[in-house]
Amino acid sequence: MPIPEIFVIYTGERKTRPSEISLSQEFFGGKECAVDVKVKIIYDGKEGDIINQYVIFTKVCNEQMKIYGRTRKAVMEAIRICKDQNVLREYLISREKEVVSIMMVLYDEEEIMRSYVESEVYEATQKAQYNEKIETAKEMIENDEPIEKIIKYSRLPKEIILELQKTRFAASVQ
Predict the structure, then answer these.
(1) How far is CA 81 from the centre of its chain?
(2) In the sheet where 5-9 sits, what is the strand order?
(3) pLDDT tens readout for residues 30-51
(4) Which CA distances in Å does 90 have to 32, 50, 52, 74, 86?
(5) Per residue in 85-116, pLDDT tens?
(6) Are 114 and 122 in contact (CB under 8 A)?
(7) pLDDT (tens digit per residue) in 128-150
């Protein structure tokens, strides 16, 4: 079965610019796999063509986003600049509201994903820190340290330390 050919417009910054990427080459070291796809990479098109204008539009959007953040102001400025530079001008004039809506949805989705990842990292960090405090308290309990000292160094509430002491005592009785 022939390998399907797919084209992708790449608008990011990249030092190396391969003309195509193969799934099996990139992820499986060139070994045969059940599904392989060759993707032809288009970087900027020919000056003035639709691909070139799209790449310019995305770069202007990224520049404005750096200045104004992921805001409506950034989108509106990008549209204004592109219309002034005759980049996608007719399209932006006829569909400005639609472009703004799409860009804001994209910004919202990226923001939601970024926020989710940040919260997951925060929760994992908090859990690790809490577990570290518990281990410190357990070690100090094993060494028969006074409860005030355990509270100070573990930074755990007295109730949790008392519960840990009960658990230790119950385990040693059995």
Answers:
(1) 28
(2) 5-9, 38-42, 20-22
(3) 788 777 778 888 887 788 889 8
(4) 46, 12, 15, 20, 8
(5) 999 999 999 999 999 999 888 877 777 777 77
(6) no
(7) 999 999 999 999 999 999 999 99
First to last CA, the chain: 68
Q: Which residues contact 5 (CB under 8 A, 6 or more apart)?
A: 38, 40
* DSSP strand pairing (20-22 vs 38-42): antiparallel
Q: Cα separation of 126 and 124, whole Å?
A: 5
Q: Answer for the pair 3, 37: CB distance below 8 angstroms, yes or no.
A: yes
Query: What ranges make up the beta strands (E) of 2-42?
Result: 5-9, 20-22, 38-42
Q: How far apart are CA 59 and CA 43, in angstroms?
A: 12
d(CA 64, CA 84): 15
Token pair for residue 123?
A: 């929760």
Three-class secondary structure of residue 161 per DSSP: helix
DSSP assignment string, 84-119: HTTSSHHHHHHSHHHHHHHHHHHHHHHHHHHHHHHH
Distance CA 76, CA 60 (A): 11
| Amino acid 15: pLDDT | 73
